[in-house]
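Final paragraph of the annual report: two paired records, presented back to back.
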Amino acid sequence: MRSVRARAALGATVVVALALIGAGVAVLLVLRANLTGQAELRAEVVAREVAGQLALDVPYDRLETRDEDEYPVQVVDEDGRVVAVSKDLEAISGTGTDRVAPVPSAAPGQGPGPGSDDGSGDDGDDRDDDLADDDEGTPARGEVDPDEPDFTDGTATVDGESADYRFASVRATTSRGVTLTVHAGAPLAAEQEAVGTVRGAMLAGLPVLLLVVAGVTWLVTRRALRPVEDIRREMAAITASEDLSRRVPEPDSRDEIARLARTTNETLTALEASVDRQRRFVADASHELRSPIASLRTQLEVGAAHPELLDVPGAVADTVRLQALAADLLLLARLDAGERPGRSTLDLGALVREEVSQRVGDRIPVTVAVPDSGGLEVAGSRGQLARVIGNLLDNAERHARDSVTVSVRAAERGEVLVEVTDDGAGVPVDERERIFERFVRLDDARARDDGGAGLGLAIARDVAVRHGGGLTVDGAPEGGARFTLRLPAVG
């Protein structure tokens, strides 16, 4: 199934079906147990009534039972012989013997009974006393067994009608020591009818209830997923039109779908900004490349036609400018692609000293302030961080009047700070974020810079961010600009 609605409806229906089946089985079991318990109670009452009469030596043919047509009774002696049955009992099962014809025997208390060898009383009574005393499970003479009776399931045919019964077995001992077992049955027809009625009602109502659950789940899921379909439809339209300014509808609810719509719109906003920045990047790169390429071509064409007029230093300068611009563009492309910097540990103070020592052609000497106490280790790419320091020094050299200073120190929050300051005109407050955008140069910088493309500070901030730090600018005490590079310290 490819439809979420269909899967949700099917899942809910299956869960409800399993729950209802489990609950139905439990209800049926409890109902059957309760009704069976009631039948056992009725059978026990009848059995104890008959056992009480036997304990009082009531003759077998004079035993009285309630509702003989409803409660069949069978009495057997210790040898399993049937000595008495209820009226109209024609067949029985489940009591240990299926015989329903009483065996000729003396009534309780009248002459020899089961277990007697002759009619003389003393020997038989003494033997019966011994048997009664030896058998712990046998009730005393003239008493009914007080223990819980045994219960069994069986059938009986009374007056031509067969039915299922729950039999209770109670033992009683006559005054002569004869132990008899009374099997009395209570009909299970009411229990079977009640259980069958409940089971039939459940089976009839279950499909209807499941259809209702499936239908309600389908409708509720459809209503809940309607905003998702609207989002999908709008996203398809955006994909077809390539218009990233469009946004998906956001429902008024505060559920997951509303959050999905808001996240989707935020993603579209970020994607639109990224595409716009990429377009501006391509346009600005094309513009920046056009000037040195045109200049270089012109010089080469003039040199081809008039070798004596070839400006070799100018061609070399344009080539160097093209090479630097191509390197900047390549580094930005790698950064945009998510290239992760290396994780080697390096001393930022030593790196600053090394970079400053290699700058032999600077217009203004650079003053370095690096402590000797250590604790300036950071993790990252040595080449990229050296590029950041070089770009900051280049920017300071272009704008300084008389001095450029670079300092390295450990901050309190587990960071290493590199500060590059100059005594130039500084950066206006409202321009301090814009200068980190690509191909952005302030008017005074553009007038004094004949080779920069406005990528140095953008590259410096991108590298700093990808190293887990940052790059900001504010005013320097000397009146110029102070660029602060923050990087997390190692350890």
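The closing record of the year follows.
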Amino acid sequence: MNRLRIVFMGTPDFAASILQHLVDKNFDVVGVVTAADKPSGRGLKMNESAVKKYAQSQNIPILQPTNLKSESFLTSLKDLKADLQIVVAFRMLPKEVWSMPKMGTFNLHASLLPEYRGAAPIHWAIINGEKKTGVTTFFIDDKIDTGEIILQREIEISETETVGTLHDKLMHLGADLVSETVESIANQQVKTTKQPEKEEKLAPKLTPENTKINWSDPLENIYNKIRGLNPFPAAWTIIQINDQEISAKIYAVEKEKALHSHNFGTIISNKKELKVAVQNGFINILEIKLSGKRQMDTKSLLNGFTFSKDAKML
């Protein structure tokens, strides 16, 4: 196998884990491109990306451009003399960047393309009640997530899967697929397939609007939405207690199919349980975070907090 000079581009934990896998497999990672440091927290301490932290631990050269078209960045990138670039959870690249290496630039996407192109594929697969998803490697072209597919691997989504558990499964599956893709490129054994043209499901960026729970939705839809956003960024709601409105994030839940006559959003609570009436049944809340309080299990919350008889989710 030809030993390729690889430049890796990525930012979050998902990408850092795959970079670590490449290094552990003794691939020649000659440089890393990641997001610029950002101030965060109350003290506005400069926060470094997970990819940067790992690259520093391995003494891998790091580039942190704010402008991917700047001459200084393009010159520094060219100086790394990459044969191949790998992109995992990064930004859209200009053609000057993705077309630079002789072996091209490929991306790992956490879905079975062409399904779930976009920023949040793991979340939306669960939110939409999919039974399977996977990972795809593809060569980057001038559109988002549309390039020719190199390899795909599929995985089942269980009935109780959360975005947290599925994220980790896809991260490990993706690491194996990336190394397999590099080997096939190095051995000149790549056979790509064009993405089929069909009405695809998209994975748009998560916003306060599309992460709010609609308690008039069917039981299954609400259940899928909550687990598809658990633990990050978490589905949220407004709770009306007497004349007060409190925002809350909802994490672990169970669904209970049942016939009832309650209005949707009605809260039923006692010392041991907290559930909300919806179409076709109830959502039993196991973990919740009220505004201004820490995240806690329902029993702990109910030890010191009482919901009024007319309390409801809005």
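The chain has eight helices and 20 strands. This concludes the annual technical report; the extension proposal builds directly on these records.
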